[in-house]
Hints:
Layout: H1 2-20, H2 25-58, H3 60-75, H4 81-92, H5 97-119, H6 125-141, H7 145-159, H8 165-184, H9 189-201, H10 206-219, H11 226-238, H12 246-263, H13 299-306
Amino acid sequence: MKKILTIIMAAFLCASVAFADEPDEGLHKMGGELQQHRSTVQTRIYNEDVQNRLRSRFGEDFALKAQRMIMKAKEEGLPVEPVLEKAYEGMAKGVPAEQILQAMERVANRYRYAHRHAKGLTKEAGDIHRVRNMIAQCLAAGLRDEDVGHIAYKLQQRAQDDATKAEATELATEAFRAARDMARLGATSMAATDTVWQAIDHRYSAKDVKTMRDSFVTNITYASSATNLAKSYANSIRRGEGPEMLWSSSRIEAAGTRRAMEMGLSGSDGTSVSGGGDLGSGGNGGSVRSRSGGGGRGGHYWRQRAN
């Protein structure tokens, strides 16, 4: 009897090993489908929770309007979670119903615009989502639609020269990440865009752009403002400085501008040292209008914007 049981157990174990030796591609696929299903279920539960809260708070008509907006975003392949989050945020802050709908629509439009540009920069679905989300974050941070468009256009030009599509996608991701962080730290849309545009134009790699962004974030406390630091970086890039030398090249200008602002001084031409608004980049002393001329709108970026 023991021999029979031993034979049965051995046969069972062999069968188990044989089953385990089957290619695991099916298991990976099953795992991926399970994860996607779980995410879908979580989103549906999240959506239903938002709908129930909106319904109890504002009534059925409002909940249906919100639902149609969410379904439209989903049909277009846009992420619905940011739209739902905006609804939650509005309810938590006690915002009126119509304002919540308007805010939800703005978020959906932001991702719609970002998705359109992302598809022009890469073709892989995962990469499109990654670049799209970064662009949407740029817009949320304060970059204007037209400035995002200028960065995307310059990236498309660079993509023609990059060795691989992966390099082009990585550069796009880092470029928009840099613009996002500059804007989040207070740089104007125009100043952040000019800096990133110059980096792309002067053949910075994705790694170079990351170095530039890290330098900017690290040294922002030593500058008079994020806008002035962005302008100083743009000027340094125009002069041909590499990413590791940007702060070294810009710190005298940035520190000088800060000192002048603290003392309430003005440039030699009567223009405030911190002036210039969104135009141009800082110079050496006096006005911060760009050395490259054009009423402050210096460099190739501004010439292309004018065309």
